[in-house]
Design goal:
InterPro entries: NAD(P)-bd_dom_sf, Sc_DH/Rdtase_CS, SDR_fam
Organism: Actinomycetospora aeridis
Family: Belongs to the short-chain dehydrogenases/reductases (SDR) family.
Helix content: 40-55%
Strand content: 5-15%
CATH class: Alpha Beta
Largest sheet: 7 strands, parallel
Protein name: SDR family oxidoreductase
CATH superfamily: NAD(P)-binding Rossmann-like Domain
Number of helices: 7
Number of strands: 7
Length: 257
């Protein structure tokens, strides 16, 4: 999929914070929001990768790159406060940071790894919401998108711990939408396999064979997800909250895992 021409600067004057944004889906989301006029803070753990991402995004007056671990409460607060200080607001939060260090049957799972998955994929997302609410959104409103997964909507086999964390994130999205309306909208998106380094193990053994299972006969791209996120944080989605929107090339519609 090639990048579509976004609406002309419809997010101009708004500031976004995208976590896990040095590459993959997070980087694609940051690039898309930037193209629509937003100022964007990107966070990730590794400074060098963040610097490279920021340089690739261009527009240095509208990009702030801050290293930090999503699981670190102090780093979350610092990212939110720096965004408000630099850009004057925090209108959009995209909780994209996620990990998956645990593969295989849950009965044999390393519980430490499972705890870490939930800490980053669920608890840290809530932590960022709390910080955004404290620093800006509680008084001024905003839009939040959580990066879920089709693995949170159906059993996911060898990545079951990851899928369970994404199911929790979907429920968290609904609870937050109920509690934070009407001034803050909270939605989630649920991608299937997207061609990123994070998901590479799921298709490296044969991309064409994996893609053949999808009605669209291809895997997703970061831009497929980014355009959906852009819609959900825009005024065009002003009556949408508490939703988890699949972006899966029709995979779940087939009834197959």
């Amino acid at each position: 999929m090639t990048d579509a021409t976004p609406p002309a600067q419809d997010l101009a004057g708004r500031a976004a914070l995208v976590t896990g944004a040095s590459r993959g889906i997070g980087f694609g989301v940051a690039r898309h929001l930037l193209a629509r006029g937003a100022a964007v803070t990107i966070t990730a753990r590794k400074q060098a990768e963040l610097d490279e991402a920021a340089a690739s995004l261009g527009a240095p007056d509208r990009v702030l790159a801050l290293p930090g671990n999503a699981g670190d409460a102090a780093a979350r607060a610092a990212a939110v406060d720096a965004t408000v200080e630099r850009f004057g607001s925090l209108d959009v939060l995209v909780n994209n940071a996620g990990i998956n260090p645990q593969y295989g049957p849950l009965v044999h799972a390393d519980l430490g790894a499972v705890s870490k998955i939930f800490e980053i994929n669920v608890v840290a997302a809530l932590g960022f919401v709390q910080e955004a609410h404290r620093a800006w959104m509680g008084e001024h409103g905003g839009a939040i998108v959580n990066m879920a997964s089709v693995g949170g909507l159906r059993s996911s086999g060898v990545i079951a711990a990851y899928g369970a964390s994404k199911a929790a994130l979907i429920r968290l999205t609904e609870e937050l939408a109920f509690q934070l309306g009407p001034t803050i909208r909270v939605n989630a998106v649920a991608p299937a396999v997207v061609k990123t380094k994070f998901a590479e193990a799921l298709y490296a053994h044969g991309e064409d064979e994996v893609a053949s299972r999808y009605p669209m006969k291809r895997l997703g791209t970061p831009q497929d997800v980014a355009t959906l996120v852009g819609f959900l944080v825009s005024d065009d989605a002003s009556w949408i909250t508490g939703e988890t929107v699949r972006v899966d090339g029709g995979m779940l519609a087939t009834g197959n895992a």
